[in-house]
Every structure is written in structure tokens, then in C-alpha cells.
Amino acid sequence: MAKKSFQELINSPGMPVLVDFYADWCGPCKAMSPVVQQVAGQFNGKLKVIKVNIDSNQAAAAQFRVQGVPTFILFHKGQQVWRQSGAMPAQQLTQAIQQYV
């Protein structure tokens, strides 16, 4: 299977896509990992989650002007509809996604 481009991944029809920009050296990113998994589980089958390591995917990080990690960007029908940087409670992440599923 060919590797999909970032653009193809975020243009997922009918399903919002949450992109988690992170780095291995980032403490808050590690803290958010179980939160992201929990939220993804809540929206199982209704949300696609993509984790993007900014160190190995600098082009994607630059394209979306990611300056701090973690940065979460929610795409719906290929459009950026929500964005937040930094750690946050699961409830805040859930509320942001809820209106698009």
C-alpha cells in the first residue's frame, strides 16, 4: 500500500481528523498521549487520529506553522476547524471534536 500524503490523510471524507503534532523529547506530549487515546476511544469509528512527529515531519509542521508541541489541529472535510497548543484535559478535547462527529 502506498504511503498516503498528509493532504490525503486530512481530507478523510465524512470523518473529522485530529492531528497530534508531538516530539519524543516533549514532556507535555507524553502526558497527552493517554488523553488522546482515551478521546479517540470515545469517538471510535467516528474520528481519525494522526500523530505527527515534528522532528521527522518538519514539512507538515512548517505547513501548519506548528511552533510549540503538543499542538492539536482538527480537520473536517479537509478544512482546519479547531486548533489548540499545549496540554489540556480530555473534556476540552472531547468538546472540540463533539460538534464535528
TrEMBL record:
Molecular function via GO: protein-disulfide reductase activity
Q: Where is this site: Contributes to redox potential value?
A: P28
* Keyword line: Disulfide bond, Electron transport, Redox-active center, Transport
Domain Thioredoxin, by residue range, is 1-101
S-S bridge residues: C26-C29
Query: Where are the active-site residues found?
Result: C26 (nucleophile), C29 (nucleophile)
The record's annotation in InterPro entries points to: Thioredoxin (IPR005746), Thioredoxin-like_sf (IPR036249), Thioredoxin_CS (IPR017937), Thioredoxin_domain (IPR013766)
**GO terms for cellular component:** cytoplasm
Q: Where is this site: Deprotonates C-terminal active site Cys?
A: D20, G27
Instruction: Give the similarity note.
Output: Belongs to the thioredoxin family.
What's the protein name?
Thioredoxin
Q: Which organism is it from?
A: Pontibacter flavimaris
